[in-house]
Amino acid sequence: MKTLKLLIFISLFTLSNLIAQDYNADQIIRITTTVSTNPVAITFTWPPIGKGTQVSIFRKAKNDLQWDENDPLIDLPGNATTYTDNTIELGKDYEYFFRGYGVDFNPYTYIWGGVNIPQTDNRGKVILMVDDTFVTSLKPELDRLEMDLIGDGWQVIRHNVSPNATVPSVKALIKSTYDADPTNVKSVFLFGRIPVPYTGSAAWDSHPDHHGAWPCDGYYADMTGVWTDNIANTRQARDSRNHNIIGDGKFDQNYFPAPTTLQIGRVDLNNMSFFSLNELGLLKQYLNKDHDFRHKRLIAERRAIIDNNFGLDGFSNAFFASCGWRSFTGMFEPAKINNGDYFRSTTTGSYL
User: Fold this and answer.
1) pLDDT tens digits for 101-146?
2) Pairing relationship of beta strands 124-131 and 154-161 according to DSSP bridges
3) SS3 sequence, 116-133?
4) What was the pLDDT predicted at 15?
5) How confident is the model at residue 27 (pLDDT cuts 50, 70, 90)?
6) SS3 of residue 293 by DSSP
7) How far apart are CA 318 and CA 292, in angstroms?
């Protein structure tokens, strides 16, 4: 009897995983693309949408800021599984928005594509903000990073910044650099313990003991919005980092007050006490791996792994893993996107 109960439990657990995976994957349209130069065309194919009633496809030029959702490129029946766009021009790139309509859900996916798109030789200017703690100890690696960025098409504007600087002073430095050449400054790369902006009064993970201010590097990427510090007043979070008191240097906004202007990314390996290497060693290791990847000395198989730990109760939490499915669909063909345990999978094979 105990064996029977165990088998029933395992079967139900396995079934719940399959249901969760289907719910998550079914929130997207899994697109496969092929291109042709004669005639110039892109062909999209996808699995049937469960209980689908319609598939609408929208298209815009890559640099257009908005979709015209009242003017689809085409509306297809719900059982459609392919479409060929032969109205494109050679050498131009486009963004596509696929929206499905079904009885239970409305999946959607974004794809960027084109035929014989020219190589990008000039990406604009990147502001490289470096924690001045490591200017000497990582000089060869940081100089090499600059050369790698230049080789990738960037013009590098570097500023060395103290980790003890104020957040507004860092923003002012980025803003003045942007204002000097707003047409060409496109990106910000924060390296090291560049001061972290905090903002808002919310619990984005739905845990009341996390209610308060959260890290927001997007503050550094916003060149036009107004950020205030005279409204939020909360101390209910367990961690004092989330406390947000009027006048404490943490901002009020829960949402960006204006669209962000710049791309932004951060490499910050401070306080990673689990690892045997200290912060300097971790940053050096990162820069070495970054260089090797850029020069194809570090090669990973072009595929993705999704370890879904939210969707076991089915449809209600399907949104979380579906974001992974949707992002990876623009990068890999569907057969290269796998469900699995992250640690077990990555110790037996490589994943980009």
Assistant:
1) 887 778 899 999 999 999 999 999 999 999 999 999 999 999 999 9
2) parallel
3) CCCCCCCCEEEEEEEEHH
4) 34
5) confident
6) helix
7) 36
Amino acid at 246: I
pLDDT for residue 20: 42
CA 274 vs CA 271, 277, 340: distances in Å: 9, 9, 25
Tell me how far apart the terminal alpha carbons of the chain are, to the nearest angstrom: 45
- Please provide the size of the chain in residues: 352
Within 8 A by CB and 6+ apart from 326, the residues are 27, 28, 108, 109, 110
265-322 residue pLDDT tens? 999 999 999 999 999 999 999 999 999 999 999 999 999 998 887 765 555 566 778 8
Please report where in the chains the tokens 């079934």 appear, as a residue. Answer: 15
- CATH number for the segment(s) 31-118: 2.60.40.10
Question: CA of 215: how far to CAs of 65, 167, 195, 250, in Å?
Answer: 26, 12, 10, 9
Domain range annotation of the chain: 1-30+306-352, 31-118, 124-294
Q: Could you tell me which residues come within 8 angstroms of residue 181 by beta carbon, excluding any fewer than 6 positions away?
A: 125
Name the nearest CA neighbour of 125 among 144, 142, 146.
146
Q: What is the mean pLDDT of residues 19-47?
A: 82
Q: Burial, 341: exposed, middle or buried (Cβ in 10 Å; 0-12, 13-18, 19+)? A: exposed
Strand partners, 103: none
Do the domains 124-294 and 31-118 match in fold? no
CB 240 within 8 A of CB 230: no
Cα–Cα distance measured from residue 278 to residue 272, given in angstroms and rounded to the nearest whole number: 8
Architecture of domain 124-294: 3-Layer(aba) Sandwich (3.40)
Please give the pLDDT value at position 286: 98
